[in-house]
Amino acid sequence: MGLIIESIEYYLPETILTNNDLQKLFPEWDLEKIVEKSGVYQRHIADKHETAYDLSIKACNKLFQNYDKNKIDGIIYCTQSPDYIMPPNSFLLHKSLEMNDEIFAYDFNHACTGYIYSLGMANAFFKAGMAKNILIVNADTYSKYINKKDKSTRVLFGDGAAATIVQHSENGKGLIDILFGSSGSGYKNFWIPAGGNRNPKSDTTSIEIEDEHGNIRTENDIQMEGFGVWSFVNSVIPKQVNELLLNNNIILSEIDQFIFHQASLMTLQSIIRLLKVDDQKVFINIHKVGNTVSASIPIAIKDALEQKQIGPGSKIVLSGFGVGLSYGSILMDL
Prior knowledge:
This protein is α+β, with helices and mostly antiparallel strands.
């Protein structure tokens, strides 16, 4: 028994923030230099009162236009920007979609490796015989955690939600193997220092500080040490992908497409170089959506399918990495 991806839909906020918009707001920013590293030309931004749940319900409504929601056995919802401290967003979704009561539903707090974790957990449910059809939702509104004067994060991240239906497979197709990794010692390379119970928001945490690169932020905002994250990814992802392929007696040239978390263009180019893989085999769509956190991989899969870069029978590698610091990779047949 394995896991197959039955269908994916996604939704992006209507508001689009382009680099030209940012240049008008901050004429002192060197957008050309920043874009060389980020690769992002536009990103979708949630409105003030638009939440991760709002984005996800629209993605799910698109998904269930062609699928019977009554077949769903469970909901796995990945977000770091929930609507409430409690209850989890999965229950808000369950209510709005008017789904059966005889299903499980839960949220988990994860970021850029979230889709890999989602598939791994769904696969475990299938192998345990506890489900046959699972709805996976990955949604975030990171823009609400970003200081508008922090060019390192504001240029990079976009908001979005993806909804995926996964099913168990009896014919051997689907998920072949999966590897996870964690490096908690690097957690301060990507975090929000204040806002939780250990360091609640206060007047002190709301003081703006400018770093040596001209980025302005408070302790309530995302703090990203770009070089630290980039170095971490370079040190673990090529090694993990090679290990994944070696464990399954597969060589790089046998993979039809690699779909990595759309972290930044510089990160993707580094992985391509270190893996020594043909760049035509690495799908990239960060230029039009930005880094959409755990939704980035399913959004990329959907785009790759629509652009016919992959299709039924394709052998692909999915790989995520980021907050935690975390990383994980999957080998699968579509």
